[in-house]
């Protein structure tokens, strides 16, 4: 048996250094390679990268080693270098579908959806049964906004692997974005069956149920998502929305506060919390939150709309007009926002701009009763009775069971001197609401103009009786 002394060992090490200065001995290549794979499986990605690089320097230059080092670089967040390694793997083995798939995923992470789709498609061409490539391509199409192609790829992925919870979940969410929410719910159900610990699937189903108006169902799912992931900021935010719609303002406020604590840079949280404060009567805090949302996202049109409404409610129509104008600039024409701004123009005395806004709002949404009412009121105030009558006739066609619409129509018809038509409209209002004293009073005036004093007296008496009864009850 040969024995090495310390001095002998030192001499050997010096000899190795002299023979391989700055180099890695080739016989260690396989050891480096195996150690790299072990480190990768253990999640020690920096160490894995180091071993893969040493294995390459020691002489291993296969497609597989470049592919594996690419995977490691992706884990470290270096997609650019990962793509370089996948390029080399493909160069060495042009039939390596996994390299195309993973290069596609690296491009996807960079936001290069078209390039990702091209690579996923090549992987599918090489292996038509590659369910993961269909799933990944579905995500890339979703990223591009092509929902139909996305849904088609998730469906194909599920045909190949019907037990994949992620494909069910992602197809469900694509269906939600397409507006086919009822079709999405079964996908979320199946995803949760396959993976009961998926906070994302519970979140998505909760968000979908909220869109369907099932507030309690949404709260239940979002609560489960939070139980699975106590730092799920979006789940707190959406549950806050559900509580808000359920008129549980304190619970909603608690959830918005928690979401803001978890992510102080989420503009929608501040925007919605601001509207909640406004709903509770705290206009100043509402404005502060809406302003915070705008500072975080200057392109958030709905925050400008909300803050504009808050400014208007506090009597500052000048600032409100500025916010409504910014919202319109960002989001394009909106009947609702134009109506809001038009009301502000009226309050500041700019009737011409108010008319233009109301007319544009009407052109965008001619069957919106709120807009029709505003147009009728505005034209009545301006003395444009014929236009006011046109809008009120439109209103009664939209809301044929609304006694107030007929009453207002009757009043304007009377101002225009059309007493027979006014009597007919006011009689319809009374038929729909026999306890409305105003309708009797106004019909009494119309009867006076028509010269029918007995009917006028009867209507005035009825109006007094109803008003007296109402006052005694109140």
Structure characteristics:
27 helices; Serine Threonine Protein Phosphatase 5, Tetratricopeptide repeat; mainly alpha; 474 residues; disordered N terminus; single chain
Detailed description of the structure:
By secondary structure, the protein is an all-alpha fold. It has a domain at 411-474: Tetratricopeptide repeat domain (Serine Threonine Protein Phosphatase 5, Tetratricopeptide repeat, Alpha Horseshoe). Helix content is 79%, strand content 0%. It is built from 27 helices and no strands. It has helices at residues 6-19, 29-41, 45-57, 63-75, 79-92, 97-109, 113-126, 131-144, 147-160, 165-178, 181-194, 199-211, 215-228, 233-245, 249-262, 267-279, 283-296, 301-313, 317-331, 335-347, 351-364, 369-381, 385-398, 403-415, 419-432, 437-450, 453-473. Helix 6 runs antiparallel to helix 7. The chain is elongated and about 120 Å long. The termini are far apart. Residues 1-22 have low confidence and may be disordered.
Summarize it.
The protein is mostly helical and 474 residues long. It has helices at residues 6-19, 29-41, 45-57, 63-75, 79-92, 97-109, 113-126, 131-144, 147-160, 165-178, 181-194, 199-211, 215-228, 233-245, 249-262, 267-279, 283-296, 301-313, 317-331, 335-347, 351-364, 369-381, 385-398, 403-415, 419-432, 437-450, 453-473. The chain has a domain at 411-474: Alpha Horseshoe (Serine Threonine Protein Phosphatase 5, Tetratricopeptide repeat), CATH 1.25.40.
């Amino acid at each position: 048996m040969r024995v090495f002394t310390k001095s002998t060992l030192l001499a050997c090490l010096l000899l190795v250094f002299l023979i391989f200065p700055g180099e890695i001995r080739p016989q260690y290549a396989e050891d480096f390679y195996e150690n790299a794979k072990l480190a990768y499986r253990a999640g020690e990605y920096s160490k894995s990268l180091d071993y893969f690089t040493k294995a390459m320097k020691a002489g291993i230059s296969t497609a597989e080693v470049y592919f594996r080092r690419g995977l490691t670089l992706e884990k470290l967040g270096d997609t650019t270098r990962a793509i370089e390694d996948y390029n080399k793997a493909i160069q060495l083995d042009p039939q390596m579908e996994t390299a195309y798939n993973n290069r596609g995923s690296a491009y996807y992470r960079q936001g290069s959806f078209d390039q990702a789709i091209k690579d996923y498609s090549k992987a599918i061409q090489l292996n038509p049964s590659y369910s993961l490539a269909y799933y990944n391509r579905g995500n890339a199409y979703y990223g591009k906004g092509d929902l139909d192609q996305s849904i088609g790829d998730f469906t194909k992925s599920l045909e190949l692997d019907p037990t994949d919870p992620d494909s069910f979940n992602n197809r469900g969410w694509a269906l939600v974005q397409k507006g086919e929410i009822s079709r999405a719910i079964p996908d979320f159900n199946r995803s949760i069956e396959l993976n009961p610990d998926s906070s994302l699937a519970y979140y998505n189903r909760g968000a979908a149920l909220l869109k369907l108006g099932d507030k309690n169902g949404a709260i239940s799912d979002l609560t489960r998502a939070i139980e699975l992931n106590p730092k799920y900021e979006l789940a707190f935010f959406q549950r806050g929305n559900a509580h808000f719609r359920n008129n549980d303002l304190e619970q909603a406020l608690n959830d918005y506060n928690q979401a803001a604590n978890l992510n102080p840079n989420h503009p929608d949280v501040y925007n919605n919390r601001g509207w909640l404060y406004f709903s509770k009567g705290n206009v100043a805090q509402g404005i502060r939150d809406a302003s915070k949302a705008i500072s975080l996202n200057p392109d958030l049109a709905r925050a400008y709309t909300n803050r504009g409404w808050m400014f208007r409610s506090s009597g500052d129509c000048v600032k409100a007009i500025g916010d409504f104008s910014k919202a319109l600039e960002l989001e394009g024409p909106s009947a609702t926002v134009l109506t809001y701004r038009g009301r502000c123009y009226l309050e500041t005395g700019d009737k011409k701009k108010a008319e233009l806004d109301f007319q544009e709002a009407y052109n965008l949404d001619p069957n919106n009763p709120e807009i029709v009412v505003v147009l009728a009121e505005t034209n009545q105030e301006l003395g444009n009775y014929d236009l006011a009558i046109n809008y009120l006739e439109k209103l009664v066609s939209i809301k044929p069971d609304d006694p107030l619409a007929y009453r207002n129509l009757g009043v304007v018809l009377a101002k225009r001197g059309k007493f027979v038509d006014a009597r007919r409209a006011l009689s319809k209002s009374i038929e729909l609401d026999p306890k409305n004293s105003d309708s009797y009073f106004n019909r009494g005036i119309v009867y006076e103009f028509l010269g029918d004093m007995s009917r006028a007296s009867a209507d005035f008496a009825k109006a007094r009786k109803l008003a007296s009864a109402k006052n005694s009850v109140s």
